[in-house]
Design a protein that fits this description.
Layout (H helix, E strand, L loop, with lengths): L1 E2 L1 E2 L3 E7 L4 E5 L4 E5 L12 H9 L5 E7 L9 H16 L6 H15 L7 H8 L3 E6 L2 E6 L4 H10 E5 L6 H13 L3 H22 L3 H16 L8 H12 L4 E4 L7 E5 L5 H9 L3 E3 L3 E2 L7
Parallel strand pairs: 4-6
Antiparallel strand pairs: 1-7, 2-13, 3-6, 4-5, 7-8, 9-11, 9-12, 10-11
Helix pairs in contact: 1-2, 1-3, 2-3, 2-4, 3-4, 7-8
Length: 299
């Protein structure tokens, strides 16, 4: 797969002191207090915070999290939050700062500990940052940093339109349905997954060649194959947004993340102002796109 990171950040902090451990999610406006890590049983709305503290126990403190991305947006916000939590907790424990190791631990707290279905791409993207090609083989993850022409990268940034459909979703539900079909040997799903793999390889080449029109076509090709994975992949608001963007003359576009709601992004041939107006007319919210090359930071 190929992805990049944008400037909508997840934040986590560990503030020592107090009685026991206080977990605070500013996004969810929710808190819970326990005497110690041994009292944590990851579940419910604060499952990620519980999982992180249970895997990386600390003394009396408050662990606070917040995300700049809308909940259920498909922008990898839970993966980025995993990375932020692991980084903050490991830093408070005096452990070495290793981005790849942080990414793996972040995946563990979400999938193995909290029991949420998902891949590893969001955690590795958030931890490492920038444009990357990723290959997953069982437990192994290979990542390659893509060095793009600077002028093309800026051109890409100025012509991307990121739209939030207003409908959040739980990506684990979509992923679980797709994984179930794959396990049953559903030929429609296995064929679509193979085509998605081929599209990712082509996208790597298009980005490195600074071929903007081909990047747009491949975004749409990716989305067509993604829609073959699950009958609920494309929601009503997404379909209306796609039609509006097609009428506005975009080069291509797709859902962010697992689809089935959340955000979609489109590549425009020129200034995206007119396309943005069309997106707002069908109820979408425009989010800022700032491509960033740096991964997780701790202090």
């Amino acid at each position: 797969m190929v992805n990049t990171t944008i400037g909508l950040y997840a934040h986590a902090s560990v503030e020592p002191g107090g009685e026991g451990i206080l977990l605070t999610s500013l996004d969810l406006n929710d808190q819970m207090r326990v005497s110690g890590p041994e009292d944590l049983h990851p579940r419910g709305r604060l499952a990620l915070l519980q999982s992180a503290v249970k895997r990386f126990p600390v003394g009396p403190c408050e662990v606070i999290s917040r995300s700049e991305a809308p909940s259920g947006s498909g922008l990898g916000s839970s993966g980025a939050l995993d990375v932020a939590l692991v980084s903050a907790l490991r830093h408070s424990r005096g452990e070495p700062f290793d981005r790849a190791d942080i990414a793996h631990s972040a995946w563990q707290i979400e999938v193995e500990d909290a029991g949420l279905a998902g891949g590893k791409q969001d955690q590795y993207a958030a931890a490492l940052g920038g444009f990357r090609a990723m290959t997953f083989r069982d437990s192994d993850v290979e990542t390659e940093s893509l060095t793009l022409d600077e002028a093309f990268t800026e051109h890409l940034r100025r012509h991307l339109l990121l739209c939030y459909t207003g409908t959040s979703r739980v990506s684990a539900d979509t992923i679980a349905r797709v994984m179930g079909g794959y396990a049953r040997g559903d030929s429609g799903i296995t064929g679509a997954l193979q085509r998605l793999k081929e599209t990712a390889a082509a996208m790597r080449g298009a980005l490195c060649a600074a071929d903007l029109p081909r990047v747009g076509r491949l975004l749409s090709e990716n989305w067509r194959n993604q829609c073959q994975l699950d009958s609920r992949m494309q929601t009503g608001p997404m379909a209306r947004l796609e039609r509006a963007m097609a009428d506005a003359g975009v080069l291509g576009g797709k859902a962010a993340g697992a689809g089935a709601g959340g955000c979609m992004f489109f590549l425009c041939p020129s200034d995206p102002g007119l396309a943005a107006q069309a997106a707002r007319a069908v109820g979408a919210t425009i989010l800022d796109v700032n491509l960033v090359g740096e991964g997780v930071r701790v202090w």
